[in-house]
Structures
1.
Amino acid sequence: MSKSNGTQRPSRHRLPELQEASLEEGRSERVRILMASHRTEACLTAPAPGREHDWKDAVQQSLSLLRASLGEASQRGESAGGLIAELKTAGGKYYHRVDRLQQEFDEMVRRCDATIEHLRSQGEGESIDYADIRQRVTWLLTSLKHHQAREADLVYEAHGLDIGIGE
């Protein structure tokens, strides 16, 4: 397959074994994050009036699972040998884009942590603003989707590899 500038992308069958393993790990990671995101969305859309504390607990648990998936992704992303990590060479063509993606990811993790902490701090006697929580978490999930799309675009542009999770 040719890039628009005429250079050849590496064919998938010629990928080094380490890169192939990294690609599969990345896909598995994306599936785990997607599953946790779907679970969080399901909890968010459940009815809350009259059962605010049960609703809050379910959202908090689903966000904790999402946070665990993001933590695994962060650890893998920081390790050497990953498809994205290898693009962040000082002065390299993709350095600034990878750096922006990492900063964006770190901010999403901070927002996830802050929302979980906010939910934990809500006591039994307090009223829960479920509309505000829905808005916060929806923003986080939307940001995550956009982030994953930009990450997939970058890997495809640099390596010619589709890291998506399929149709």
Note: Confidence is low (pLDDT under 50) at residues 1-14.
2.
Amino acid sequence: MAVKIRLARHGAKKRPYYRIVVADSRMPRDGRYIEQVGRYNPLTNPKTIEIDLEKVDAWISKGAQPTNSVSHLIDVVRNGQPVVEKKAKISKKAAGKAAKAAEEAAEAAAE
């Protein structure tokens, strides 16, 4: 039986919340799992990562394979390094409005 340590998605639409679970690789992503070993919430600032490293190490010693995303989260927790935040992108429409408002403010200040 191939066992994986992976993310199971929960939460509402466009509001993801993940559980880090140990599951049979043949089970669906959000389906039955063997054990929950942590939680990950990417929406909080800074991102919330809670992992029971003792359980993870025990499962890895038994042959469980963490996915790429879970192995990255485990490394972040082990090293204590903060998760790098991506710069928020604004839409072209919002950028245009901001530029227009800046021009109007500059004209008002010039008068």
Note: The first strand starts at residue 3 and ends at 12.
3.
Amino acid sequence: MSEQRYQQRQQRQKEKVDARVAAAQDERGILIVFTGNGKGKTTAAFGTATRAVGHGKKVGAIQFIKGQWPNGERNLLEPLGVEFQVMATGFTWDTQNRETDTAACLEVWQHAQRMLADSSLDMVILDEITYMVAYDYLPLEEVLTALAQRPHSQTVIITGRGCHRDILEVADTVSELRPVKHAFEAGVKAQIGIDY
């Protein structure tokens, strides 16, 4: 390709991008969903939170199934002012007690509702909330109502497999992570600092 043709192609591309940027004038918080069976949903959410904190934004995080095991994201972000509320029971498949898991979910959900009503928070992460809805620990309608009534400028990030279609419908941005290959399938143990 000649240099002139390359420049013409790049100029056309620039004009398309510039037109799309000029057309995007709405300023508001958005609802982002990271879902799918692939690795990286929580990592994507906390990468976005790290970016927000780096720009002086205020962030809150709710983690529904992480329990009390070591948490690198929390170790980094909590000292920078990010409030974390973590469901104490951890993985629901470990506890195998629906009543206890539901109570723990509803307890941490109270913090989520508080954060979703707090106009001083620029971003709220609802990590692994999709499981809480899927397992009927948390009523879908309550989640949808809290999302709809949040402050206009607040961005919310939802993570977890099998996100309910009604949440996907109201989301502004949805990314589905698809597994191609995972070290765990080859017998590699989850590693601190890499997997958690």
Note: The chain has one domain: 29-186.
4.
Amino acid sequence: MIGWTKRGLARRLRVGQGAVKHMANGRHEIRDDFGAWLEGLAAAHAPLSPELRDFADKMGCDRGEWVRYPRGIRPLSDDEAAALRRVAEAHAAAPWPPGWVPKGEEADEAG
């Protein structure tokens, strides 16, 4: 629904592809909070057409970024813009799964 490949999810989470493959293949348990995070993002993406999913990716909505008049993309209707804004807001509100500390930010968390 979100349009992420296993490789893309691994890159976004800053983990090795093996970790995502193990979860996808059932060899590693998917925590409830991680699953809920993915389901919440999928729900935000659900109303998007394939074309709008592509726009969301190009515009950076999955990074929580929003631009009303993006360059290189056809003009958006008000409804399309609102749907893409909701996707960006969902990603901005929950950029990482609960309790997730991205690689490279562990030092920041430790203070």
Note: Helices lie at 6-13, 17-24, 32-45, 50-59, 78-93, 106-110.
